[in-house]
Task: inverse folding
């Protein structure tokens, strides 16, 4: 019924906009247009580290300089230079204050920013499951990544008040493209990928893009392994110059030994050998399959009005086993009491969106208008033994002996556990529907130097949740306003301010078995933006203050979930990206984040303590320099570092543990000539002993160990 209602609303909106546009259309001057074949000329001196073109999926029409919000763009060129293979690999170094909770291996990116867990979008579609996920996107399908700082309810789907990131996938362009790449590296890494594109007919109406990738590698931890396959075909059909339909399909398959790369010990963070593993070679590998279908229809009605409608569906399934330790062995602390846990999850996300954009004037006042509707349905099912696994597989950290016989190591579709895993204690089933209507209008004053936008979103949601036999439901209507202003001091310098509200519908129950309430967020932001060197370089300086109420917190002792009350995040962020001088491209950013609990009725001792995973200081630098010497033309050198200080644990605790500062240095060299390029990257040049996400629980220390010095080398051929 909900999907039918959404379809009717979308059809009504399309008809209304077309009728209005037809009545107000102004005939354009007759201009003869000559279309030239597009030619791509690549040069090390012209890398695109800085761009101000936002994707159409963000729904706003301004340039970055005129947008009253801090939005940072990461181009595919940057990801290539830094040798990132997927979203889980250091892409956050390119955005001030962003970082990963590195716990769920390939299953989930888990990115934090401004004191909160930010939402994942793909082409403007909300694809965050109700639990962990989605699978970290591979660079083989990534065109750009947009980091939207703060609430953005009118630009993309709902999310945490900290912000969101939006993956823009590669799409057909009509340009003939045949790119092949092979990568070899440390820990047995071997990877091959291809990117093909062009036209399928002589008239250039039907375009295609085809990306394929296969990867296999061992980890630096004992018994770790990772296999990954990606297939992503897409088609674009041009009905005419103003009407297009794009259809994409993305298939990802993962197969690896470790759901989590955490190390565990009673002796403190980082106290085990780097390659120590709590898993076992005889355990069942973890497997995941992910299918995503995406369709986008765009209609330019006239020079002032356009309509966009899109549908997306994701079906994902993952299952495997993990060894986990819940507490300390009091008899012999060096013995890890490992429980063998089965963890399986299925989720489906269906999304339908429609929005219209237009420009008109009332007297001397110019308007940019946006209105639309979003529908989203999320359905998660899990089957696990996190609370029921009972057999202990001891492991001595001073003399580990592996290859034990696993009693419940099923290898087929069923898992032969010592417990019945189909009982209510092993199952969850959660559903969340929301339908949202929104409008936003931006007016231009003072010869369009001052732009003020205001908007409002009305969301209705319903949630049903069955967690280990406990059933609950929730529903509500929520109104979220937004107002922003941007003033162009000069053509290349602007100042802006923003007030925004947001919320995240929740499906679940708290420790008292009550339905979870929506997380409510309120954000104030102000900043300065400046373009330099004829838009080759951009800087952004912003300050923000975010409050979250009805925030969800997991008790670090008994794992119960409750809504603690409020937390507060405030900070300063600076981003610089682009070309300083010819051949020298840079990314420099810094963030100061003060995020803490301000109200917690259930645990007053936590008030004033940092929110989960808070990092007070983050500073990143990346330099890429094309050597100017004619005798060695085509060579580039890269060097960059990541620095983090004031790190907090994964869970808020009344007795917080100190986490050491983080510093990693990476560097590389590349050579390109015509259609051929080779790239070498060395990560962790100083071979520093680093760990990321960490926490203490039940007298045990948990942390994620990071790799020692390692390298990657690629050969790429463009035909």
Result:
């Amino acid at each position: 019924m909900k999907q039918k209602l959404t379809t009717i609303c979308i059809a009504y909106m399309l008809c209304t906009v077309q009728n209005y546009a037809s009545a107000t259309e102004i005939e354009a001057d007759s201009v003869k247009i000559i279309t030239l074949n597009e030619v791509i000329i690549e040069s090390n001196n012209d890398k695109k580290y800085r761009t101000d073109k936002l994707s159409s999926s963000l729904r706003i029409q301004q340039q970055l300089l005129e947008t009253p919000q801090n939005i940072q763009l990461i181009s595919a060129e940057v990801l290539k230079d830094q040798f990132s293979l997927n979203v889980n690999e250091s892409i956050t170094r390119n955005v001030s204050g962003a970082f990963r909770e590195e716990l769920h291996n390939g299953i989930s990116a888990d990115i934090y920013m401004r004191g909160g867990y930010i939402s994942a979008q793909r082409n403007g579609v909300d694809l965050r499951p109700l639990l962990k996920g989605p699978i970290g996107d591979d660079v083989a399908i990534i065109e750009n990544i947009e980091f939207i700082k703060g609430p953005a309810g009118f630009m993309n789907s709902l999310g945490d008040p900290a912000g969101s990131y939006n993956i823009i996938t590669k799409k057909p362009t009509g340009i003939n493209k045949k790119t092949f790449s092979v990568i070899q590296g440390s820990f047995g890494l071997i990877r091959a990928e291809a990117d093909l594109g062009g036209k399928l007919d002589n008239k250039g109406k039907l375009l295609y893009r085809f990306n394929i990738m296969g990867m296999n590698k061992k980890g630096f931890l004992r018994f770790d392994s990772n296999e990954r396959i990606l297939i992503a075909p897409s088609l674009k059909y041009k009905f005419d110059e103003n009407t297009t339909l794009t259809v994409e399909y993305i298939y990802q398959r993962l197969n690896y030994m470790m759901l989590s790369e955490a190390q565990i010990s009673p002796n403190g963070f980082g106290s085990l050998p780097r390659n120590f593993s709590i898993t076992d070679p005889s355990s069942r590998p973890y497997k995941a399959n992910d299918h995503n279908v995406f369709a986008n229809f765009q209609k330019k009605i006239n020079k002032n009005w356009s309509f966009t409608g899109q549908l997306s569906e994701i079906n994902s399934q993952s299952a495997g086993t993990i060894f986990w330790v819940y507490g300390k062995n009091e008899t012999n602390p060096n013995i890890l009491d490992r429980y063998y846990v089965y963890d399986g999850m299925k989720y489906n996300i269906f999304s339908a969106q429609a929005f219209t954009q237009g420009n008109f004037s009332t007297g001397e006042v110019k308007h940019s208008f946006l209105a639309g509707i979003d529908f989203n349905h999320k359905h998660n099912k899990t089957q696990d033994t996190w609370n029921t696994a009972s057999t202990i597989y001891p492991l001595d950290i001073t003399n580990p002996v592996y290859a034990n016989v696993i009693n419940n190591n099923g290898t087929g579709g069923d898992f032969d556990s010592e417990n019945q895993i189909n009982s209510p204690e092993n199952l969850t089933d959660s559903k969340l529907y929301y339908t949202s209507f929104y409008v936003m209008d931006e007016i231009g004053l003072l010869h369009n130097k001052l732009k003020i936008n205001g908007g409002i979103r009305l969301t209705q949601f319903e949630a049903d949740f069955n967690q280990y036999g406990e059933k609950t439901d929730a529903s509500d209507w929520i109104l979220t306003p937004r107002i922003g202003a941007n003033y162009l001091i000069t053509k290349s310098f602007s100042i802006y301010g923003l007030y925004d509200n947001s919320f995240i519908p929740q499906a679940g129950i708290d420790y008292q078995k009550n339905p979870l309430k929506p997380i409510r967020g309120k954000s104030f932001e102000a900043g300065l933006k400046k373009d330099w060197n004829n838009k080759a370089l951009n800087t952004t300086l912003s300050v923000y203050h975010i409050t979250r109420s009805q925030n969800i917190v997991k008790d670090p002792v008994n794992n119960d979930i409750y809504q603690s009350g409020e937390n507060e995040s405030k900070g300063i962020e600076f981003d610089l990206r682009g070309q300083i001088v010819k051949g020298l491209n840079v990314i420099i950013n810094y963030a100061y984040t003060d995020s803490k609990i301000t109200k917690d009725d259930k645990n007053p001792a936590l008030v004033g303590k940092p929110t989960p995973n808070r990092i007070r200081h983050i500073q990143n630098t990346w330099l890429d320099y094309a050597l100017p010497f004619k005798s060695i033309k085509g060579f580039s050198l890269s060097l960059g570092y990541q620095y983090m200080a004031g790190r907090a644990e994964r869970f808020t605790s009344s007795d917080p543990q100190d986490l050491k500062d983080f510093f990693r240095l990476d560097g590389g060299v590349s050579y390109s000539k015509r259609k051929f390029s080779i790239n070498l990257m060395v990560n962790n040049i100083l071979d520093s002993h680093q760990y990321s996400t960490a926490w203490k629980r039940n007298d045990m220390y948990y942390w994620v160990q990071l790799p020692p010095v390692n390298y990657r080398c690629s050969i790429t051929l463009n035909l």
